[in-house]
Amino acid sequence: MIKQAIIPLAGLGTRLLPLTSVFAKELLPINGKPGIEYILDECIDAGIKEVVFIISKKKQMIKNYFYNDNFYKKIIKKKKDPRILKEYQKILKYKKMIKFVYQNKPLGTGDAVLKTRKYIKDNFFLMLLPDDLIIRHNCSKSLIKVHNRYKSSVMASMSVKKKTVSRWGIFKLKKKLDKKNFLVSDVIEKPSLKNAPSNKAVIGRYILSKKIFLKLLKQKPGKGGEIHITDSIQSLINDEEKFIAHNFSGKYLDCGSMNGYIKSTLEIAKL
Ligand code: G1P
Predict the structure, then answer these.
(1) How far apart are CA 186 and CA 269, in angstroms?
(2) Whether the CB of 202 sits within 6 Å of ligand 1
(3) Residues of the domain holding 199
(4) With a 6 A CB cut-off, is 168 part of the ligand 1 pocket?
(5) Which of 111, 200, 223, 233 could disulfide-link to 107, CB 3.0 to 4.6 Å?
(6) For residue range 162-206, what is the model confidence (pLDDT) as tens digits?
(7) pLDDT for 56-75, tens place per residue?
(8) What is the CATH number of the domain that holds 159?
């Protein structure tokens, strides 16, 4: 069973400037609700019991959001507003399931994952990248089902326009397992159009084996000088670890870019 999830939240959010110059991008409201709450709700609905947040000193605001008890208690004492009480109870529910670890240098997603090593208890865990919102269908829940069926690592996958391949991790597929699931033979972080093995991209939902930590310990920086989870995944595949690309249902929204962020508000308002 997958019971633990990790969420890297130390990113600077430069693509969303100026909104992120003093504010954590994951707390920006999308249709009246902070983006991170959509991600947490997806986890809860998928049966996750514990979530590890990887933040940085600069993103301390995220921890404060969940630890503002005194403020809520004072307000609720004065004003008996049932809406605020309900919101506070929701925050308390989230707070109970979150642990915080720190990544103070922006060394990449792989480095962020490594920070959670001592918290992961089971053989497999879920990772969600908070820029990637997937609506109308719980992608994490689907990945967990695929994991339970094939007992392997799984990544969410989507076909993208060929000319955008250098924005994503791109897969080479080895074998079709069924309508939505494919065995992966290679994954390359942000390849050039010339080197891209396909137009199938990794989207920010992964079920990873604990073995990834041993790879990350030795992982050299890759594209852009960062330590990429993608490179350690490739290293596990080279060791015959089974990785499945799951073509998820639901709509993908890229909340890490300004256009995508604006669009996500409009799309969620339609739900
Ligand atoms: C990350 C991953 C990349 C993946 C993408 C999905 O990139 O490194 O492999 O395709 O998320 O959104 P980033 O968005 O951090 O540049």
Answers:
(1) 38
(2) yes
(3) 4-269
(4) yes
(5) 111
(6) 999 999 999 999 999 999 999 999 999 999 999 999 999 999 999
(7) 999 999 999 999 999 999 99
(8) 3.90.550.10
Cβ(230) – ligand 1 distance below 6 Å: yes
> How many structural domains does the chain have?
1
Ligand 1 pocket residue status of 16, Cβ below 6 Å: no
Ligand 1 centroid distance, CA of 109 (Å): 9
Segment 200-236, tens digit of pLDDT: 999 999 999 999 999 999 999 999 999 999 999 999 9
- Say which amino acid occupies 160: V
Max distance between CA atoms of the chain, in angstroms, equals: 63
Find where tokens 């739900």 sit.
Answer: 271
Task: Sort strands 29-30 and 98-102 into parallel, antiparallel or unpaired.
Answer: unpaired
Distance CA 214, CA 100 (A): 21
For ligand 1, whether the C-beta of 109 sits within 6 Å is yes
Q: What is each CA distance from 139 to 73, 135, 154, 205, in whole angstroms?
A: 35, 8, 11, 7
Atom of ligand 1 nearest to the CA of 11: 15
Say what percent of the chain tops pLDDT 90.
97
| Cα within 13 Å of Cα(150), Cβ side | 23
Specify the pTM.
0.96
Give me the residue label for tokens 């301390």. Answer: 60
Contact 152, 242 (CB under 8 A): yes
The alpha carbon of residue 148 and the mean position of all alpha carbons in its chain are separated, in whole angstroms, by 20
